[in-house]
Inverse folding.
């Protein structure tokens, strides 16, 4: 038996003609967890005197902190407009990052033969440790940025990319198109690289010295999971605010 580190998410079962990978399987539980938390929060908000206010207080505190963070960057008007999308992204990315630190994630699965070596194919894998997931998040985010640009400037937003008044503006527009495409790649690989590297580090340390050696790195990865979500959201906020501003 050997330590198995796979960059690609491993298929664990089929649903019709589609392979369901361990990262997609984990994404389902992450989404379900967030939906249940949202429903529980909604229920306590409906009650005039909720019995247990701890969940409500924690969520409201987090919401106020995030709103204050957004406001400090782009102001109240833009922050209020972008708050639902950005906060949804933040919580999904944080929980996805942290899901890879739960006991059993990456260590519970089936032993299979691969090229003559017995390796473990885990049932669960952090969604953000799969490049497909981070690329999907990047595409959704940059699509949202472009929609906000069109919402603010209508078809005039296209002048940012296509302006043929003179060769310089034409060249600048080409650079803007390349920049938007590079942002997708940057979003996807930054998040994937940090989370995947952290999981590899934990796996190697646990393989060499079980339990003891992994404990300090768990605390580090909890911190990294929050920071990476904040960086993703902050960049989305800045790019969206830039798309909504007037272009000269």
């Amino acid at each position: 038996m050997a330590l198995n580190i796979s960059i690609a998410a491993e298929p664990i079962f089929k649903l019709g003609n589609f392979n369901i990978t361990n990262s997609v399987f984990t994404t389902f539980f992450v989404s379900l967890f967030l939906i249940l938390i949202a429903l529980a929060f909604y229920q306590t908000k409906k009650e005039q005197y909720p019995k247990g206010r701890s969940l409500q207080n924690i969520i409201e505190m987090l919401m106020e902190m995030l709103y204050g963070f957004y406001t400090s960057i782009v102001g109240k008007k833009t922050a209020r407009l972008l708050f639902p999308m950005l906060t949804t992204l933040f919580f999904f990315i944080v929980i996805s990052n942290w899901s890879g630190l739960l006991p059993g994630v990456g260590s519970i699965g089936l032993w299979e033969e691969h090229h003559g070596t017995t390796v473990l194919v885990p049932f669960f894998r952090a969604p953000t440790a799969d490049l497909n997931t981070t690329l999907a998040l990047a595409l959704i985010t940059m699509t949202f940025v472009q929609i906000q640009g069109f919402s603010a400037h209508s078809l005039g937003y296209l002048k940012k990319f296509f302006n043929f008044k003179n060769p310089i503006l034409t060249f600048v527009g080409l650079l803007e198109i390349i920049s938007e495409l590079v942002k997708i790649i940057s979003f996807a690989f930054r998040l994937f690289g940090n989370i995947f590297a952290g999981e590899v580090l934990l796996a190697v340390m646990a393989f060499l010295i079980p339990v003891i050696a992994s404990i300090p790195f768990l605390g580090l990865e909890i911190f990294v999971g929050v920071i990476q979500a904040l960086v993703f959201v902050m960049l989305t906020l800045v790019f969206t605010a830039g798309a909504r501003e007037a272009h000269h």
About this structure: The CA atoms of residues 134 and 188 lie 5 Å apart. The two ends are 62 Å apart (CA to CA).
